[in-house]
């Protein structure tokens, strides 16, 4: 394999106006870049295309100008890494201020901190459970009213004719709900679109996604998910619950709201990325727990998605938050349902308990389950491929908010029309027995005492449809009904994921899988002897649901436990695990999981568990960024301001070296200082001259840095006079004197492991004499990936 040549540095044609504040959302992408990829298998280096940035946020005076400035098509290439995403500082800066604070703290102080961590986790669980309860109750009532109105209308017009009026009513109701949710997302907070799981995955991976854990995002998310589920879209409310839990955690743990400009002066010690990220992982777990009634599944979800920073005490706290979340939800739902104190109804979705004796499985069914897993993997891969191309189409053409709202309304109307057509043309009538759990049975053209079976799948919220597919007795569904339903719902769900609405993909995936799984069970029972009872359709519906969900999202460990906990039967642990493993292996052969596909489409520098397999030949010298902008221990204020104001570089970490006469020569490393720290120092005017003349009344403390976190002011907002530019600043007290360093001959996998495991933001590369030769950041490592032609390097673009 040819050595990888020096990377090309990119800069955009114009300055990026709001560094890092662009919308990292797929269908709300504000800028994009076009560029071809270099591939390094046979030493071919292809021509690198000129990068173009398109700013869609420009304010224009006349309508004509706006038409001219808004392109019809935004070029997009997923083989790029965006420079607008920053890393989180998971590594503590152990400067003199930090060490002094640690020394001042007593044993009791540390104990109180530990107690307050437990209190925060309890609060996170409680609030996440309350939000889940609110969403559940509002969706149930809104959907109930909607289906009741449409049902009465259909019954009225079935007798007198004119069912088209019922169809129009259904489509209009759906579109109105979806329009409200979509307008909120598209115009107020685009980051709240989708399930939010890809964004939370990135956050736990250590990427700072702008606006992802803001209060405004939470409000829009909750409102949006209520509207999209009540609007009858092929979506679930479980994914957004995970995002909501993460936002709650980020807010509660800081003891203040930057959006509301309100500071409660509590939990000030937790105002840094190290603590915040731990709490966000607890919030995500609490969200899973509230959504599925699966506290252990929640802990494992956080472990599976962000386990580079895990320890035993954190596991305990996250489990506590998850348990609190489920308990809170159960308690308030029991009050709502008039059974106060009855806590046996876990989760937003309750699949109902699978009794062991009624649906037992045998050894000879294991191969059948594995085949279903493979089928789930293939169907999941097909879903992801279709959604991938659809998302690229959306990025290119459906990038204006009004177009996004119109598309969401179109999907809502089409969903209602398809549902109505399926119910109308279906002649699958089933007797309305005592054990039927149908909420809104539609008679339509069936005889008295019978209901339309297709309506129980379409004319319902997706959660209820899944439950009826799991638990309705054999013979409740016609094979043709299930086949047609699977096909139509598959394409509807694929079209719906990625719309500008808050919506999850868990339940639609399970519904598709439960439908074809039940169909599989019915076909097995027709092939086997008529006396055999083993091919119970409900059992195969459960296995099909697991296979389809595993094929789409590719989670294994946490999904197994979530499914086991949600069905309340641990005996299905083995078949569900085998099915999910098979679905993942088969699906990964074709394309990545849905969340990974969307992360890649957003050009996020996401670090996987391991460095690419064939990257041992690369060394730190070849991947690092150089030359490095360094500061002296005592640096001139004017130099610092100029470097921070330089928009073409926009660095966030600067090695501090011993005195340099010539800035071009290499200096020995003394420490590392961050842009955010320098901005706080400039804001408080911590200059050597002021200290000498005693103008500085008090010494700067860590509290000053925590108060500015997380929205540090931009350098442009800090006024430095001409006289002050001549002053000097001593960085010794504020820099981290012990940054992580690696020799320049270190192999890429070794650098990767150190960077990923410690959650670093900057890794300094030094030569034999400890002189700074380069700096490794997240983007330098995320650029390399294993493609079809060997090791490939992505390009960096200021998008």
From TrEMBL:
Q: Where does the protein end up?
A: Membrane
**Residue spans with biased composition (Polar residues)?**
1-12
The UniProt entry's GO CC annotations, sorted and at most eight, read: lysosomal membrane
PROSITE patterns linked to this entry: CBS
Q: Main site of residence? A: membrane
Which spans are transmembrane here?
118-139, 167-188, 218-236, 279-302, 314-336, 366-390, 402-425, 489-519, 540-564, 570-591
CBS domain location: 735-793
SUPFAM superfamilies reported for this sequence: CBS-domain pair, Clc chloride channel
Under Pfam families, the record lists: CBS, Voltage_CLC
Keywords annotated in UniProt: CBS domain, Chloride, Ion transport, Membrane, Repeat, Transmembrane, Transmembrane helix, Transport
Q: Which InterPro entries match?
A: CBS_dom, CBS_dom_sf, CIC-7, Cl-channel/antiporter, Cl-channel_core, ClC
- In this chain, the stretch annotated as Disordered covers 1-28
**GO MF terms held by the record:** chloride channel activity; chloride:proton antiporter activity
Mode of membrane association: Multi-pass membrane protein
UniProt cross-references to PANTHER family, sorted A to Z: CHLORIDE CHANNEL PROTEIN CLC FAMILY MEMBER, H(+)_CL(-) EXCHANGE TRANSPORTER 7
What family does the entry list?
Answer: Belongs to the chloride channel (TC 2.A.49) family.
Question: Could you tell me what this protein is called?
Answer: Chloride channel protein
**What is the source species?**
Aldrovandia affinis
